[in-house]
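Can you make up a protein sequence with its backbone structure tokens?

===
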Amino acid sequence: MEKYILPELPYGHKDLEPYISEEIMTFHHNKHHAAYVNNLNVAVEKHPELFQKTPEQLLMNLSEIPEDIRIAVKNNGGGHVNHSMFWMTMSKNGGGEPIGELAKEINKTFGSFEDFKQKFVDEGIKRFGSGWVWLIKSKSGELQIVSTANQDTPISDGHTVILLNDVWEHAYYLQYKNLRADYLRAWWNVVNWQEAEKRFTE
């Protein structure tokens, strides 16, 4: 029985400075993400046959998860999967503009890259309480900006995640205090567009 494990970051804890501080990344990855993985393992241990499924597969079929652990799997599995994607869609060499097919589709759907960025930031500001803001490719193949509460994830509804930003306070408060908008705007400097393009074209 293979338990779920905390993935290594694809960069060092201070590599996203000055936009995201080493202190935030250390707490965020080593404490918050680790807790989701640990709590997911504790839940799934009650039905160990589920360890044969990836966390993504659990979230894509929540109605099939035993009722006694369904909410724990939704919350902690979502926390694990969302953070795992989040780390990959940032890079110490990030920033700039989208590339390839994704760049064309962003311009087509949102009018321009600047308009897309503004809509994405606005959606993140609007999300009340804790949650995420996403660029997804919907089941019908269209790009959409959406937000979700807590650790809910669009993959549970069959959508493909292209880009995501964490708007839980633990993602920014130590550095940006209550200025979520400043964090959302600074975050563009670390976006990994190569990863986003790969997610879009696959």
